[in-house]
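Chapter summary example.
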Amino acid sequence: MVVTPVNAAADTKLRATALRAASACNPLGIGDAQPMLSWRIAGPAGTMQTAYQIRAASDRAQLGTGRSYLWNSGRISEATSTGVRYGGGPLASCQRIHWQVRIWDAAGRVSPWSEPASFETGLLAADDWRGDWLAVESALERDDRLVEPRWLRVDLSEQEGRARFRLTFSSPAGEGLLTIDTRSRLLSLSIDGQKLAVPDWHPDAYGGPPAARLPLALTAGDHVLFAEVAPRKDHGRASATIAAQLRLPQMGGAAQRIVDGWECAARDGQWQPALADERQEHFRWPPSPARLLRRRFMLTAKPREMRLHVAAEGGATPPSPSGLIRRTPSRRIGPAKIESDRLLQTQGILASSTWTNPR
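The structure predicted for these 359 residues follows.
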């Protein structure tokens, strides 16, 4: 309990405002069991905070009762009003916390308690997530991804300005799809002597050019695909690398995908098999358009509120259930570590929203 001296009576002009947790106003679904708290100091010109006190409870009505607090910091003689770590006991997933703060100025005057604020934790433990990862892709795209291209390399001399690769293959008539990437830059691409448009890339652009995806109008028969790749120096060695997948037109069964069989031109002009690079890193598939997902469900009773927790690789547009009104905007907390069944550990965005039933 804090006893307020007579000369430190509450100053109604001095107050704490704009309370935030995890840098958000009354956030939902935060992924931190001890979020950072902050507030703004309001008062006459020149007002400076010299101390603060925070109290927190599981119910708004419990604030001010003097009992059942989850945390009562007592008076803390610090001027800090940002980055104050929640100091109560461990929080559970989906737990709502209501909190207030009051402050002291340099003259020892204390403010009234602020208006209550709140925050709610998301799903803090991996076991709390009961949903499964969904592959937001078509069956054709999934099958492409499962046949991952292999990285091939050719060593070059200092004088060689480009490497030449070729792939000889047979195909039925129809539309094929070539997905190709390099660790440097794709200079030119052609099939059966016809040049293909290589995506533009400005040399001053950040990072390397993305993987290219090109549809191919194929006739039945044999074809030759040529690619020229710029060299790249790595640990004093000049080399050129390529990784590609060629999906042939589908004829009655599963589509055939070619990731091997590339050749490279040697210094004497002869063609020889391209060697697999020792670095078989993850293939950077080109980005695909955003997909709209929906899920039908039935409620046996009218809910007062609902929570939807979404974890997505990259991000997710705030969802909107039909027939319900979103009372609070979607809270995006990120980046957060997302564990997936895939080979990579990726960065994701957690989003939470609240909806109420209008009836």
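To summarize the output: The longest helix spans residues 139-146.
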